Amino acid sequence: MLEYLPRSKQHTELHLTQFGMEDCISGHYFGPAVRTHYLLHYIFKGEGIFEVGGVRHHLRKGQGFLICPHIVTYYQADEVNPWSYGWVGFNGTLAEPLLMQAGLTPSSPILHYDRDDMIYQYLQLMAQSRQSHKARETRLTGLLYLMLSLLVESGPETPTVQRESRAEVYVEQVIDFIEMNFSQKITIEDIAHLIGLNRSYLCSLFKQQMNISIQDYLIRYRMDMAAKMLGNTDLSIGDIARSVGYTDPLLFSKMFKKVKGASPKHYRSATALT
Fold this sequence. Notes:
single chain, four-stranded antiparallel sheet, DNA-binding, AraC family transcriptional regulator
C-alpha cells in the first residue's frame, strides 16, 4: 500500500506527502538515493539494514529510521527475515523541530518505539481516510501529529535549561500567559501558580528582566490591545473594556487615560483624524 498526496496549501506547518505499508520480499532495497522531504519508516516485524553517512544500522521490530531531505541513504530487507514496515513522508516548517523533540536528527536517525501498536493503527486510519472527502487533508495532518507525538513522548529527555537562562524562560512563560489570557480576569497569583513559582520570586525575576512589574506589563498590554480595537468603530467602549478584561467601563477608561494620555473616546477621535 502506497499513496502519494498533493502539495498542501492549507497545512504549511506540517503536512503528509506520502504514506504506506509493505511486507518486503527477501533482500528488497532502495538507494543509495536522496529524498526531498522527511521519510520516517517504522518496522512492524522482521529486520534489515539502514545505511547513512557511512554507518550501517541493523534494525528490527519496534525500531525505525528517519531519512532527512537531501541526505544519501540506503536500506535493505534481511535475506532470511525480511522486514515489514510502514512509513510516512512529510514536510513543513514544524517538521524539523518536532523531530528534534523526538531525538531524531541527521546524526541520530534511529527511532525506538515498542510501547504499543499505535503507529500501526494510525497508518491504518490514514488508509481509511480515503472515505473522507472535504476533511481528508485535515484528518491526515491530525494523524501525523498524533504519530509524531508518540515519538516525542517516548523520546529522550530534553536537556535541562541552563541556570543562567532559567529566568528568561520564566519571563517568556509570563508573557505568553498574558498574551493568551489578557481578556480574562487573571491575577499574578494565577500566573505564578501556572508557572510553579512563588509569587514574590516570580515578580522579582520579571522586574529584573523586563524593568517593569508583571501587573504594569499586563495593564499596558491590555491598553495596547484596546487601542487597536478602538480603530473598529463597530465596537462600543463597553465592548472593548470587556474584551480586555474589564467589567467596569469607567475603570477601563480611567486606566486607558492613565496609560495612553487620553480617554478611549478622545483617542478614537484623534486616531480617526490621522
